[in-house]
Amino acid sequence: MNELLKRKVEDMNLEKISFSELISQMDSSGGFSAKNLATSVSILEDMIKDKECIKFLSFPACIVATGLRGAIAQMIEKGLFNIIITTCGTLDHDLARAYGGEYFHGSFELDDAKLHKIGINRLGNVLIPNDSYGVILEKKMQPVLEELVKQKNEWSGRELIYEFGKRLNDKNSILYQAAKKNVPIYVPGITDGAFGTNLVWFSQDHEFKLDVLKDEKELSDIAFTKKKTGALMIGGGISKHHVIWWAQFSKGLDYAVYITTATQYDGSLSGARLTEAVSWGKVKEQAKYITVDGDATIILPVMLAAIYERI
After folding, report:
1. Cα(215)–Cα(125) distance, rounded to whole angstroms?
2. N or C: which end of the chain has fewer CB within 10 A?
3. Is residue 50 part of a domain?
4. Domain total in the chain
């Protein structure tokens, strides 16, 4: 009994405190998801400071349609992560906004049939006019592809993403910062979005090939040659799974933080807690890891503000 009753719950005092102090008080208060958030900040701090650790960042496209796009770009600019794994929609939204496409505040309760008639797409409570998405991507991507195919006719996804990123001039762009910092971006589902569809259309009229296995071979080389790995995984799906899948070949992640809104009762990967990954060898038994339940648009800014104060 004495072993269980070691640490008392402490009351919060939130007057004039920093983000780092707020996180510390969340840890001391014994809150539910709040305590997990505090633990995640400590794990990320340790991971970032570990010079021997290769650090992965994964996230879905939806948050790139919000202001978190700039926060993710800033993480890359600050050198917090070595490798990014994401979805094709990230390329779509990041490029569209870098090319001048404007996204707008909306509501979950709008009339979607009416929006369709007037050429506005709804992503949650974000509104995206056709001219700011598909139209602008097709217009801007084709000339770049024309230029690239003159250099060679076979590209990997990672190579293409780098080439598009280095042609941008937008500090809030994920692709721009990744190209500038030489941080590779891997998109295992690269045909699942407007970026990929434009590649398909381009290939119909040009000698152009996409080598999807080259990316996987590069990830394989990383997994089999690195002794320590860590990851911040925002949301589930293919981007999360690709991180933990390749991590198993380096005997599992040493550090892992997972932010999710999904539940685990349906057996989905998005709902699976990181402890499940331990059973697969994707997270080491002795790893520092935590799952944080909640909306990344709330959790990530608080987490990063505290991290920046600490490091």
Report:
1. 34
2. N
3. yes
4. 1
With 0.90 as the threshold, say if the pTM is over it: yes
* Across 130-136, average pLDDT: 94
**Which pLDDT does position 200 carry in this prediction?**
96
Residue 38 included in any domain? yes
Domain that holds residue 289: 19-96+154-310
State the virtual CA torsion across 186, 192, 193, 194 in degrees, nearest 10.
90
Under the banding of pLDDT at 50, 70 and 90, the label for residue 44 is very high
DSSP state for residue 136 in the 8-state scheme: H
Strands of 53-59's sheet in order across: 185-186, 83-86, 53-59, 228-234, 253-260, 283-293
- Residue 113 domain-assigned (yes or no): no
Matching residue, tokens 């400590």? 42
Is residue 28, in this structure, part of any structural domain at all?
A: yes
Looking at residue 227, its pLDDT comes to: 83
- The stretch 120-130 carries a mean pLDDT of 97
Distance CA 154, CA 148 (A): 10
Is 16 exposed, middle or buried, given 0-12, 13-18 or 19+ CB atoms closer than 10 A? exposed
Sequence letter at residue 231: A
Q: Which two tokens stand for residue 221?
A: 């080389």
CATH for 184:
3.40.910.10
Mean pLDDT of 102-113: 97
Residues identified as active-site: 282
